[in-house]
Amino acid sequence: MQEVRYDDIRVSSVLPGSVRTEFAGTDSGAGAEWKLAPEDVARAVIDLILHDPRSLPSRVELRPSKPRR
To answer: The pTM is what?
Structure first.
């Protein structure tokens, strides 16, 4: 990030927690409602792209607000 920032290249890390996907088999099925939706992660990425270039969010962590106990 620091090497390319003066070339108008912005680098940010998105660290999503548990997301409802089918990567691990049946993670998107019943009982997975507590997980983040893929659209939640996509929205964070879009927000980074549209973020004002005066500042650089270098790290975004997303976690489910009410994880399963």
So the answer is: 0.81
